[in-house]
Design a protein that fits this description.
This protein is of the alpha/beta class. It has a single domain, classed as Vaccinia Virus protein VP39 (Rossmann fold, 3-Layer(aba) Sandwich). The protein has 11 helices and 7 strands. Strands 3-2-1-4-5-7-6 form a 7-stranded mixed beta sheet, sandwiched between helices. The longest helix has about 30 residues. The site of S-adenosylmethionine (SAM) has 23 residues, from helix 1.
Length: about 300
Amino acid sequence: MEDGKPSQTALMVAMLRARHYLDEPEPKILRDSLAKILGGAETDQDVSAYLGRIHQAFSALSDSDTATKFVQQLEHSVCIRARLVEEELAAGKMAGVTQHVILGAGLDSTAYRATDLVDGIKVFEVDHPASQKWKRENLTAAGVEIPGNLSFVPFDFENTTLAEALDAGGVSKAEKTVFSWLGVQMYLTDEAVKATLGVLGGFAPCSSLIMDFIMPDYDTATASEENSVEDLRKIVSGMSEPFLSQYSVPELSDRFLQAGFSACEFPTVGDFAERYLNGDTSRLQMNPLANYLAVARV
Ligand SMILES: C[S@@+](CC[C@H](N)C(=O)[O-])C[C@H]1O[C@@H](n2cnc3c(N)ncnc32)[C@H](O)[C@@H]1O
């Protein structure tokens, strides 16, 4: 991230969630009714105009049709990952989860929107201080109240003191926790990923982590996906947020086990089409066999 500046990729993914909420036909994967205002967009047209610029940037690297498909893929992938966290929270509540820690929260709106899911749960948004400051300004400008069960924990993952930051922020290792870490791994070094997993793996048994990850190019499912990931690499580098690490499924499994997690799963895009879209894989424009999400359990 550019020094002192908030995350530009956080804005991009919020605008993708906003588009999904505004225009996606039913069944929608996610209903992020706050994404638009948290991203500072005043009108629906502002969302379209922003995404038009993202589309143009992808088109410049490939062609308009490929860019359309890829922006759609990105939208669906950010909605699926957020929905998966909502499901984990719903299940966790029944299983005695008392904390939800959102690592690299960006403009995540769970605490302000999905209040039934986090009722009785303490929510902690951990993020880079510059991104967190910007989000808090956007919340104030949009008139969104900070819920009483939400705390902000400023933190830079490239620092080595996550355990201390969580402790100082009031997060208890002894409590069953659902962690989300969405759209962050790729912007961190392997050292920072390992250090973070090491802290999370020490939490109470049955705590869980949902994260997405970038695979090495040679492991992506098709040549066109390979090109798309390559284009995304260029776009986010242009936003001063280059990809710094990548993992194959076996490599990430190893990281989880070394960090103290007892189990992990890697659901496929096809699994999500079954769960969220009545099996209609054609809506996703993604390879049904592709992996990009992991669920790890302590
Ligand atoms: C693509 S955004 C994802 C935001 C959110 N999780 C979502 O899915 O909407 C990446 C997030 O990672 C955070 N981030 C990136 N590098 C970081 C670092 N070194 N320390 C703390 N946060 C970081 C950014 O501030 C930003 O909020």
